[in-house]
Write a structure and sequence with these properties.
The chain is an alpha+beta fold. The chain has three domains: 90 residues, no CATH class; 150 residues, Jelly Rolls (Sandwich); 215 residues, Sandwich (Jelly Rolls), CATH 2.60.120. Helix 1 packs across helix 3. The protein has seven helices and 29 strands. The radius of gyration is 23 Å and the shape is globular. Helix content is 17%, strand content 39%.
Length: 482
């Protein structure tokens, strides 16, 4: 962190403690904490010095003020989540605008305690899943896939973190989900490119690593567990697992899931004469303006965007959807980042603009930055530069509660990895119609565009990887994260 960034973070922490934090400041604090481990450590140290922040955290979690002497158990969980998982405190605040972070991708003989969950259902941050019996598969937006075996209770904190209070959880975490985390009051386990299980009963938590390696530990510190290693955590102590081989034999079962694989359709432009406008839907129109076709795309030809006119795509069938996505390959000339970093506008003047970050104080130079509203206020900056002269695969997902909703949730992926997202309050066009979202305009002089897809629902992480590798629509079964 630079001196300027530390000063800004200190001001935001002070505003939080004093109750002066505005909505825009809250979003900025969330973005800083999500993008920097050093910032999360600074935040925890700052929070630890303020009893008023302790009290505020208790109000968020319980809805009432908790005496400081009883707070440590909760605060330890919050602090561990921020330091190791990168999840902001505000993700735990009850909020009608909070977005979805996962999807139920499979169920088997499930009996639920309280609210039920169905295959194909989206899961919002903060939701608690209580399973009396049976098994439930959850695919998170980060790409991590977990199987919960009842009786069990799990809270979904974000696309990168869950809290397991009781029961058995089996996790498959691809490299794109590096940093995914499972925690509770006794321990935390974090990894990527790994498969592991966590079993929780009373105050006893056991971690088993099946493939790869993870970091696992408690308040005393973290340690690396390799393949076929395991560890028990109980009341602040660690040790070997009794009956380890027997317990391992009962984990990672082959289950026959009940799935609700929603078909995926859309329209495709490959900028080659024999592949123009392909796909399962029709009606979209492409206007190249002053763009020129180049022969050096990701697959065949690409299009080089002109300085004078953007590449525009009109897709009338988007106006009837509450959920959709677009995927494309982009290459910006490099090295160096331009003074103006526009890339894509969705929905015209009332929509959302995706640009390239040009300010070091706001994150990685050349990373995707999201702007919204007439004032084009910055909302989210990604972590990876796309302005390096290389081809990068970008997926943007949008969802609303209704065709005329003013609340739009978006998510952005770069090269298969979730970079962020959020819920924006946006005007839906001058006439209040969802049809305002049926236009995409690509700008950025000299940038190249290839393999553009507009799709009629959000993609599962495995579908994003499939589309990136094959340039073809994935099979319906891939919705399950297979």
């Amino acid at each position: 962190m630079t001196a300027e960034e530390r000063a800004e973070l200190g001001e935001l922490c002070d505003a939080l403690v004093d109750g002066r934090l505005r909505a825009g400041d809250r979003d900025r604090l969330n973005a800083i904490l999500a993008g920097s481990e050093e910032a999360r450590r600074f935040y925890v140290r700052s929070a630890g010095l303020s009893s008023s922040l302790h009290e505020y955290a208790a109000e968020i979690l319980t809805g009432e003020v908790t005496p400081l002497v009883r707070l440590w158990g909760w605060w330890a969980k919050i602090a561990a989540g921020i330091v190791l998982g990168g999840v902001s405190l505000f993700l735990l605040r009850p909020d009608s605008d909070r977005g979805t972070v996962a999807r139920i991708s499979g169920v088997l003989d499930c009996r639920w305690e309280g609210r039920k969950a169905e295959s194909g259902e989206s899961v919002e941050s903060g939701r608690v899943l209580k399973l009396e019996s049976g098994s439930c598969e959850l695919t998170l937006d980060s790409g991590a896939r977990v199987v919960l075996e009842g009786p069990a209770e799990m809270r979904v904190l974000s696309a990168w973190e869950v809290t397991l209070e009781r029961g058995v959880l089996n996790a498959v975490v691809p490299t794109e989900a590096q940093g995914f985390r499972v925690e509770n009051a006794e321990m935390a386990v974090e990894g990527g490119g790994a498969e592991f299980s966590v079993a929780v009963e009373d105050e006893n938590s056991e971690v088993f690593v099946h493939r790869g390696s993870v970091a696992a530990g408690s308040e005393g510190g973290m340690a690396v567990l390799g393949e076929q290693e395991s560890r028990r955590f109980s009341r602040g102590e660690t040790g070997e697992i009794r009956g380890r081989d027997f317990k391992l034999s009962r984990l990672r079962k082959n289950l026959q899931w009940v799935r609700n694989a929603q078909p995926l359709g859309g329209q495709h432009w490959g900028f080659d004469m024999d592949r123009e406008g392909a796909g399962t839907r029709h009606g979209g129109k492409l206007a190249l303006g002053g763009a020129a076709v180049s022969g050096q795309g990701v697959r065949g030809s690409a299009v080089r965007i002109s300085k004078e006119q953007p590449v525009a795509v009109q897709v009338p069938w988007l106006g009837d959807l509450t959920e959709w996505s677009c995927a494309f390959w982009i290459r910006h000339p490099g090295p160096g980042v331009p003074a103006v970093g526009g890339l894509l506008r969705v929905g015209g003047e009332d929509g959302i603009q995706f640009g390239v970050n040009t300010r070091p104080s706001r994150g990685a130079m050349g990373a995707l930055a999201v702007l919204s509203g007439n004032a084009l206020k910055r909302q989210v900056t990604g972590q990876k530069s796309v302005f390096d002269g290389q081809w990068h695969h970008v997926v943007l997902e949008f969802s609303t509660r209704s065709a005329k909703s003013s609340r739009v949730q978006f998510k952005q992926y770069v090269d298969g990895r979730l970079e962020g997202g959020g819920v924006l309050r946006q005007a839906r066009g001058r006439h209040g119609s969802g049809r305002a979202w049926d236009r995409l305009e690509f700008s950025g002089p000299g940038s190249e565009l290839d393999e553009l897809w507009v799709l009629d629902r959000a993609l599962m992480p495995s579908e994003i990887l499939h589309l990136r590798m094959s340039h073809e629509l994935p099979a319906p079964a891939s919705m399950a994260g297979l």
